Amino acid sequence: MINYHAFFNQQLQALKTEGRYRTFANLERQVGCAPYALWHKPNGETKSVVVWCSNDYLSMSHHPDVIQAFQDAATLYGVGSGGTRNISGTARLHVKLEQTLADLHDKESALVFTSGYTANEASLSALGEGLPDCVFFSDEKNHASMIQGIRHSRAEKFVFRHNDMDDLRQKLASVDPRRPKVIAFVSLYSMDGDIAPLKQICDLAKEFNALTYLDEVHAVGIYGPKGNGLAAEQGLLDRIDIIQGNFAKAYGVVGGYITGSKALVDFVRSHASGFIFTTSLPPAIAAAALKSIEVLKADPSYRQRLRQNADYLKNALRKTQLNFIDSPSHIVPVVVGDAHLCQEVATRLLNDFQIYAQPINYPTVPKGQERLRLTVTPAHTKEMIDQLVEALDIIETQENSKQAA
Description:
The protein has 405 residues and is α/β, with parallel strands linked by helices. The protein is 43% helix and 16% strand. The chain has two domains: 4-61 and 301-404, Alpha-Beta Complex (Aspartate Aminotransferase, domain 1), CATH 3.90.1150.10; 63-298, Aspartate Aminotransferase, domain 2 (3-Layer(aba) Sandwich). The strands form three sheets. A seven-stranded mixed β-sheet has the order 4-10-9-8-7-5-6, with helices on both faces. Strand 1 (27-28) and strand 2 (36-40) form a beta hairpin. The longest helix has 23 residues, at 382-404. The chain is globular and about 65 Å long.
């Protein structure tokens, strides 16, 4: 008979042996102090550290107007929503937020979910289950939530090589033209920082009569004339059938959404179990998201400062021998290539230089591609960027010396 506790311990030990066991830093992010945070060490001490891996890309979670909107709504409506959207959980602010999102992406309708993960999983699952004899075409580097949604739909799928339009074309051409098709892809891939060939995908979708499902999670708020994403920046909003985004990155809150035609969004609303059976976002969260969208639509300076800092960071890294991906986006991965070494580099950054950058390993990235995923914000200074690059350079030099000895 199985010894359950022994099994769990064996599996955890295997992760530790491979260097993939994940530990979390106990951080206290305080309003007005970004990008600093207090690190609560296991021995009870606290130390101020600079955070270099936050998805709060524009520090909007600390914006005074966003905080005030949250507080005002919580005072007025309480801290919970009261139920699912079907059972008293649809608040006026949910409706207003969905109207704002539809307008942001030039779509007829929108639907809000409790997270970006849920938005992807529930929407893709509903589409795959509902469209008769549906077939998905999924980029090999799509997010886990997209993969799970497609898997749960039980629809047939083809996985095309990352951003490879010849491979996508070949796979589209192999399928009966009468079958419903959905091309699922991401505008900005968060581990490499690269950008999808949006226009070419739209061209193929038109040629083969496929729906386009675009994840803009890491692009909304940052790209586009109103922070409305890379599809908007490239003038392609009218060619994307479904745009998915969330509030937990550039908007600094939490929650996810889809936008599209009225009929398509209503279909997902009516069929997606991840929407139907989940308690809705608290109205205070919706109020904070609305305010964050409003601020970023009106003030492009946040986006401009982020890009300037990202360019400064990449320029500094180019002067070193560090192995980093020179991406066209604000995400800057430094590839270490070994799970144990990646953890060691992150530990040394934290202990020796008071710099926090969480190691990224398998299954988030392939084995041998372990990395530090650096995310600069408008709140980082040039001095902080210089200190980070110098610390990484020192650690790499010392590790190379160890290996040579």
